[in-house]
Design goal:
heterodimer; A: mainly alpha; Sodium/glucose cotransporter; globular; B: two-stranded antiparallel ribbon; about 75% helix
């Protein structure tokens, strides 16, 4: 046995060693990264099989038995999509300080989520966001609307993720986009369908570890290689930012060997204050946009169904709170690191011969330009696949739960047996997976871009319902419907102008709406307006039934 | 506790709710001030601050517009323009006038023979660059790259001869990359009108004491937003959880 193990490890080492030299930058099958990729895919499927959902509680809420740290890792990996892991650095690379609005928005939202919602959501004891909305506002209409929104948001979000999976599979395996999407999609839909939230959550823990390891290693290598403080690069990369602001002159060769990028160009850059200075006119983006994006992303984070659903899986309410703290910490670890890639990538690509790098894959390109070993670049790509998988599985569970639990069980067939419920949830996962795969294969850029609307839409529709539903017993059905309608109308206006703009059509006031009600940040006005409308209409209409108020006071805010 | 079951964050109906309210509001206020308060402060204290290249550009631009620019002025202009041309966020519609004026600043300062050599060198650079982008063959790639480097070296040497720009400098690289093989480059009125706005857009930045102060190597505001705020968020969450735990213990609340 020991001999076999030694032989296997020897073969693996030989394969990996040869992989390094065979790996090329683009377009071909890459042995080392492919081994890593196939290895992690096998792990995901095995973990999914080992943790198959036995009942609907397993499927929707992982049996409510996930530990705090695991839940924190699951929250983090569920949250961090491929775009988040790969593209976050791209935001700062392309938009400088403006990109930090995304970093702050996507992390600060967790403070809102914890302080205003996490514990109370868990206390309410429901399975899904729509479940809460339907019960709290005693309205089947709102339940259905909430479920439809959960499905739509999950759907739009998923398409972008499938695109990311396709990109990385294509890069690693050298196969075409269609097969990349089909293979990647089949694996993630397969294990999520079998295991539901429980297997998805177990996999998310593993996926976070892969994301973390693959994301941190190149940063240590790059900072060490280019002579910056590498022991804690997350605190040490300030010098890189300051160097970019002041410029790094072309090296004087008499002082020793120059630092070069993978193409042999100097590690040098002309003064580029725009990289760090706030709302720089040269990069576009105003002070208002920075604030609006930051606010909308924060509030949107606290209103996304697949994020809210993570708080149903912990054994206790205290655990829900602590898992949020751990989740934010794990997210922050990656988000502290992302700007390092953008900073180093900025210098490495500063030569006009290299040109601007594609923001979506800046992390991988930076590692390549920094001449990091191809196997480690491959690991980075595998980390991106993990990030996409963890988000897709969370979205599939959120979408299929909304379909099976909120639409099928609560509206269509309230007497459905648990076994049938589980089957419908699985069918919902497959159906959603197939539809998303087909749409992703059509490669409709516009649909992938619609994910931009998800945050502001969630912030203007779902967030106000949760906020007022939890913290004000006076918010009633009429208020909820009016607030939701306000949020939907603002979302539709923004969406219509967005689609018109992308299609080349011009509507009246196009520039005005594109600036003030942009799809990325219309929640700056949408969310407050929906809250105000909810309050005003609630005050003017029949009060919330006493049994709802009683439940709220005694069960959710009890002493 | 009231028994009408009315509840609101701002009108808590028990001592426990009141204390929870206080914790929630105190955390939210700290969160809001830390995030938005700082950005507002950053906005209030900011001052438009030009890069050194912009200041130099301003010293020669009046002469350029008057038609009295000397070769030394044109050198300063070319180097200043290279700073704007190196910006990653440069819009294509802004690149065109910058490149036109750069061409004028270089070619109008040279004699026809040197200009002709420069033009050939630039054409060779462009041809090799196009080939480089198209080829999939490793050997052709290596040969083309060597040819490109050779042409670039020649252009850099000529720039040194014309304007005294050091061949190894970054400005020289940017100028060589952006020059067009156009011996008869002129300074058009349209380009001359657009340049001041373009230069100020790309070479003037919002700076202040908050951006100019260094903290562990970072510009302070960058450290605050990219590093400190995230630490603060985690701490706020931790403090909130601990305070709620303590409160629940005090009120003997079991979950």
């Amino acid at each position: 046995m020991k001999r076999i193990a030694l032989l296997i490890s020897f073969i693996s080492i030989q394969l990996l060693a040869s992989a390094g030299s065979l790996t090329q930058l683009e377009g071909s099958f890459k042995v080392g990264p492919a081994i890593i990729l196939i290895g992690i895919l096998v792990i995901f499927v095995v973990v999914g099989l080992l943790h198959s959902a036995k009942d609907t509680t397993d499927y929707y809420a992982a049996g409510r038995k996930i530990s705090v740290v695991s839940s924190g890792m699951a929250i983090a990996s569920n949250w961090m999509s491929a775009a988040s892991v790969l593209g976050m650095a791209g935001m700062m690379y392309g938009f400088g300080y403006n990109g930090l609005a995304y970093v702050v928005g996507w992390t600060g939202g967790y403070v809102l989520l914890l302080v205003l919602m996490a514990g109370q959501i868990r206390k309410y004891g429901k399975f899904t966001a729509a479940d809460f909305i339907g019960d709290r506002y005693y309205s089947q209409g709102l339940r259905v609307t909430g479920a439809v929104f959960a499905i739509l948001i999950s759907f739009a979000y998923c398409i972008g993720q499938f695109g990311g999976v396709g990109l990385m599979f294509k890069w690693i395996l050298g196969i075409n986009y269609t097969w990349s999407v089909i293979i990647g999609g089949s694996v993630v839909v397969g294990y999520t369908m079998l295991s539901g939230m429980i297997g998805a959550t177990k996999n998310m823990v593993i996926q976070y570890i892969i994301i973390g390891v693959s994301f941190f290693i190149p940063v240590f290598i790059l900072t060490y290689k280019f002579d910056y403080f590498w022991l804690i690069p997350q605190l040490g990369y300030g010098t890189i930012v300051s160097d970019i602001v002041q410029g790094i002159p072309a090296p004087n060769l008499s002082e020793g060997a120059a630092l070069l990028n993978a193409y042999g160009q100097d590690f040098a850059i002309m003064p580029s204050p725009e990289f760090a200075m706030p709302w720089d006119p040269g990069l576009g983006g105003s002070f208002f946009q920075w604030m609006a994006i930051c606010f909308s992303l924060m509030v949107g984070t606290a209103g996304l169904p697949h994020v809210l659903q993570r708080f149903y899986i912990t054994p206790t309410i205290r655990d829900a709170r602590l898992s949020c703290v751990w989740g934010l910490f794990f997210i922050a670890l990656v988000y502290w690191t992302a700007p390092i890639y953008s900073a180093i990538g900025k210098i490495l690509s500063s030569s006009p011969e290299v040109g601007n790098l594609a923001s979506d894959a800046i992390v991988v390109y930076t590692a390549q330009l920094g001449d990091v070993h191809p196997l480690i670049v491959g690991l980075l790509a595998a980390g991106a696949v993990s990030a996409a998988f963890s988000t897709i599985s969370g979205l599939l569970v959120a979408g299929s739960s909304a379909f099976a639990h909120d639409l099928y069980v609560k509206v269509i067939n309230p007497n459905a047996k648990p076994k049938n419920q589980l089957m419908v949830a699985r069918l919902g996962t497959i159906f959603m997976g197939v539809v998303v795969t087909i749409v992703a294969l059509l490669n409709l850029g516009l649909i992938a871009q619609l994910v931009a609307v998800a945050f502001s839409m969630a912030a203007s529709t779902i967030f106000p319902l949760f906020l007022l539903g939890i913290w004000w017993s006076g918010s009633n059905r009429a208020g909820g419907i009016a607030g939701m309608t306000t949020g939907v109308v603002i979302s539709l206006v923004s969406l219509t102008y967005f689609i018109a703009g992308k299609s080349g059509a011009t509507l009246p006031g196009q520039d005005f709406i594109a600036y003030w009600l942009n799809v990325w940040y219309f929640a700056w006005i949408g969310a407050p307006l929906a809250i105000v409308v909810n309050i005003v209409v609630s005050k003017l209409t029949k009060p919330t039934p006493v049994e709802i108020r009683k439940f709220l006071v005694e069960s959710v805010h009890s002493s | 506790m009231n028994n009408d079951y009315h509840f609101s964050l701002f009108k808590p109906n028990s001592d426990y709710s009141r204390r929870v309210r206080n914790i929630v509001l105190s955390i939210l206020i700290m969160w809001a001030v830390a995030v938005f308060g700082f950005q507002i402060l950053l906005k209030v204290v900011e001052k438009p601050t030009p890069e050194e290249a912009y200041t130099l550009y301003e010293t020669v631009w009046p002469e350029v517009v008057d038609g009295t620019a000397t070769p030394a002025d044109k050198k300063v202009l070319a180097e200043s323009l290279s700073h704007a041309l190196a910006k990653s966020g440069l819009k294509p519609e802004h690149r065109v006038p910058l490149t036109n004026v750069l061409n004028w600043a270089v070619f109008s300062a040279t004699d026809s023979l040197t200009g002709s050599h420069l033009s050939s060198g630039i054409a060779a650079m462009q041809t090799n660059r196009q080939l480089l982008a198209q080829t999939k063959d490793d050997q052709v790639y290596a040969e083309t790259k060597a040819n490109l480097e050779m042409a670039k070296k020649e252009v850099l040497q000529l720039l040194n001869t014309i304007h005294g720009i050091a061949p190894e400098s970054l400005q020289a690289g940017v100028i060589a990359f952006n020059l067009q093989a156009n011996l008869t480059a002129t300074l058009s009125e349209e380009d001359a009108t657009m340049i001041p706005e373009i230069m100020s857009k790309y070479l003037i930045h919002n700076q202040s004491v908050l951006t100019d102060t260094k903290f562990i190597g970072f510009p302070f505001h960058y450290f605050y937003t990219a590093v400190f705020l995230l630490i603060l968020f985690v701490l706020l969450c931790l403090i909130f959880s601990m305070r709620i735990d303590r409160l629940q213990k005090k009120f003997n609340i079991t979950e």
